[in-house]
Every structure is written in C-alpha cells, then in structure tokens.
Design a protein that fits this description.
Elements (H helix, E strand, L loop, with lengths): L2 H5 L12 H17 L16 H17 L2 E4 L5 E5 L8 E7 L12 H16 L9 E7 L12 H6 L18 H7 L17 E9 L4 H5 L3 E7 L1 E10 L15 H19 L2 E3 L3 E4 L9 E10 L2 H22 L2 E10 L2 E2 L2 H15 L5 E4 L4 H5 L5 E6 L15 H25 L1
Helix pairs in contact: 2-4, 2-12, 3-4, 4-12, 8-9, 10-12
C-alpha cells in the first residue's frame, strides 16, 4: 500500500455506507494507479505523453485489465484506448465512461488515471453482477491518449477526435525532438489519414460521465468525499508582449521605458482583478530581453491563463485587465500586444446526467449532494460539443494536483466508485422509464 493510501485508509471505527464490493474495488484501483505510475519517460518522476512508447506500454496493460474484466478492446484511429461491453441487446448506443492516461511532467498518480481505472472497475462490477445484460445502452470505457497537450501543445486531442472536432493541422505540429504528430501516429501503428474515423456520431452514444479528482481544496474544506460538477470553466490563454527600451542601469528613472517593471505591474493587476472577481488566473511563464543584469529590459513576454464560471465573467474580467494594462503602459511609456493562443467556452453539465451523478452520491454517502465549478479543464469540455456530459469529483488531499503530492483516500475512492456505479444505473432506470 502506498503512503497516500496507508495514511488515509478507512479508520477502524468508521461505519461506511458504500456498497461492500466498493472497498475491494477501491484498493484494486489504487494499486493499479501505483502500477501505471511506473510507466514514464521521466527519470525519477511521472511523465507520459501522447503516442509515446510509454503510452503504448500502458495501453497494453490497461487493455489486458479490460479484457480480463470482460470488455472487448481496441485502439481507435486517434490513439485512444476503448473497452466495450454490450447492453441487453447488441448494437445499442453507448454510455461513455472516460478520462485520460497522459500526464503533465512530474505528475501525480491520479489526475485522469483514477477516472479511467474507476470507470473500468464500475464496468467490471456491472458485468459481474449481471447488470450489463439489463442495460438499455452499451458501455464504453474510454482512456484518452491526450488531454494535457504536453507533447504537441494542443490540448484535448483524444477527446476532440471522439467528438468529431479534430483539426488536420495538428498533424503537422512537432514535439521537442522534431517529430511531427503525423510521424508519431505512424510509429504508434496508426494511420494519420484515418484519425477522423475516431469520431462518434450523436446516434452512437447516449452521454458521457467522467470521474476525476477535484484538483482543488473545496471538498476537503467541506469535509466531503464527493460532489458533482456544475460546469467546466470558460478559459482563455494569451501571450502578452511588453515593449520598452533597453538602456544602461545608470539611466534616471524618469527616462526609463522599462518593459519588465511594466510587466510586473501588469501581472500584479491580473492577480488583484482576478481575485476581486472570483475567477482564477495564472502567469506561468516570463522572459525578458536582452537579459543583461545591468541592462533595462526592452521586452518582457509573459503568458496569461484565466478561468471563469461563465463566458460572460471571463470576458468581463479580461476587459478590466486590458484596461489596467493600458494605464500601466501609458504611465511607464511602453507599449504592449496580446495574442490569444487558446479559448474555450464554459461547458455546462447536463442537468439530467448531473442529477444521476448526484443521486449516486446521495445513495453512496447518505448525504446531500452539491455541485462545484471545475476551474481545471477536462476531456468533458471537448466531448460536450457532441454529447451531454456530467462529472463526479472526488476529494484530493490539500487540493494538490499536477504534482507528485497528489493523494486520495481509499474510503473516498470507495464512495466514489459506488456512487459512479449507482449513477450509471440511475441513467439506465430513467431511460427505461421513457421507453
């Protein structure tokens, strides 16, 4: 048992109300997440990227787990791994249970991976209990090959392909070693000309459910294991370039056009404005020119990522930020330009599917369910352009994610696995009631 599990295992005097099978399933899920953490192209840490040899090895292992559970397995033309089990009659559209198996550099064990392995555990339980033979839909457990966008910079590649939103220009992107995505497809045993064949149609699926760690501290602060997700936040990313004038350090302050000092004031404004508005913002990269210790910066370039619960709030906050930048530029005698490199509108979770998730939470935890806005992006953002989606969040220690310190509790995973299974059955009951 790993450290995260041992310190957070079910207390001896605890009286869990989740289904008896769920604790054993949760232990297997945690053990499998530990095992998958061994597959990495980063020495001393976890990093696994799209179409890489390490992803091939993980697909082989997870595919074996899927087959053992009773699913049929294939890799789709976009490099996603899919396990399938029929419902009560062959050929029914699928309820998709999905998340991703790629990681950020120096990652934790659970972001994405926990969702895939939990989806598999739920499918196995439904097969073993005979429930899949009664379902008015089939089940697809989908492990997306790229959500993080680490290797090629473009994010959600696997889920956009499934949703029919693939962009052919992505195939020309190159990784840090100069390999094009098209070449990586070929080395992975895939035909890049057939990537669009990975798309589902609306008739092939009834919806999408995703199980995921919260990547934030709210559940821990509320002392709760689970929540639904109300929406995935609207996001836009920019590269901002501030231009001044390089001069010797001896230049008096009233004659300086210091790009770096201006950029620092802009970054402070981002933090202040975002906090006041209740949004989330981050400046993740900053570089300067010419870079001499005794030379005033002629240019400072930084990245900006802003997330908000609605499109309107995101755009309103950006308006305030640009106004603040205008004021800083005028005061400092510099100019600036901005370039949008990514934008995604908020994805509202489907009311019916979210209700099924919350029904599962109530039945598993015996507590009232509630929803949280997801400020991190997820595969559901892309899938939601084709299908109704909903998500189940599970508590993570300290809200830490994208970090080796990612940690989840065994009993929380048990509650979540039980709730996720109950949600699938709730979808089935509602669909049967309509027929």
């Amino acid at each position: 048992m790993n450290e995260a599990t041992s310190q957070d295992a079910v207390a001896p005097d605890a009286q869990p109300v989740f289904a008896p099978w769920a604790l054993d399933a949760a232990q297997e899920i945690m053990d499998r997440c530990d095992k998958l953490a061994e597959f990495s192209d980063m020495e001393g840490g976890i990093e696994r990227t799209y179409l890489s040899p390490e992803m091939d090895q993980v697909y082989t292992l997870v595919g074996e787990w899927m087959r053992t559970a009773g699913l049929t397995v294939h890799r789709d033309p976009a490099g996603n791994l899919i396990g399938h089990v029929e419902g009560r009659t062959p050929g029914l559209p699928a309820l998709i249970l999905g998340s991703h198996l790629d990681t950020v550099p120096d990652a934790g064990k659970y972001d994405g991976i926990l969702g895939v392995i939990t989806g598999l555990a739920v499918a196995k339980q439904l097969i073993d209990s005979g429930e899949t033979a009664k379902l008015p839909f089939s089940l697809d457990v989908v492990a997306f090959g790229d959500e993080e966008g680490v290797r090629y910079g473009a994010t959600l590649l696997g889920s956009y392909a499934l949703a029919g939103k693939w962009k052919d220009e992505w195939l020309q992107l190159r990784d840090k070693n100069g390999m094009s995505m098209s070449e990586a497809f070929t080395s992975f045993g895939l035909d890049p000309s057939k990537v669009r064949d990975a798309a589902y149609t609306r008739e092939q699926a009834v919806g999408y459910l995703e199980f995921h760690i919260e990547q934030g501290p709210i559940l821990e602060q509320r002392d709760r294991a689970l929540s639904s997700v109300s929406s995935i936040a609207a996001a836009s990313r920019y590269v901002v370039s501030v231009d001044g004038e390089s001069r010797h350090i001896a230049t008096p302050y009233d004659l300086r056009k210091d790009a770096l000092t201006a950029a620092a004031e802009m970054i402070e404004a981002i933090d202040r404005i975002s906090q006041a508005a209740g949004t989330r913002a981050n400046v993740g990269g900053l570089s300067t020119l010419p870079g001499g210790v005794n030379v005033i910066a002629s240019n400072a370039t930084f990245t900006l990522d802003l997330r908000a619960g609605t499109n309107e709030l995101r755009d309103e906050v950006y308006g305030r930020i640009w106004q603040a930048f205008d004021e800083v530029a005028a005061e400092r005698g510099v100019s600036y330009s901005k370039r949008c490199i990514h934008t995604a509108d908020a994805m509202i979770c489907d009311e019916f599917l979210r209700g099924c998730i919350e029904q599962g939470i109530v039945e598993a935890e015996q507590k009232e369910a509630f929803g949280l806005i997801s400020y991190p992006g997820h595969d559901g953002m892309a899938v939601g352009e084709l299908l109704p989606i909903a998500m189940l969040y599970v508590r993570c220690k300290g809200g830490i994610s994208h970090n080796p310190g990612e940690s989840v509790r065994l009993d929380d995973v048990a509650y979540g696995t039980d709730a996720f299974s109950r949600a699938v059955l709730a979808v089935a009951r509602a669909q049967d009631a309509k027929e």
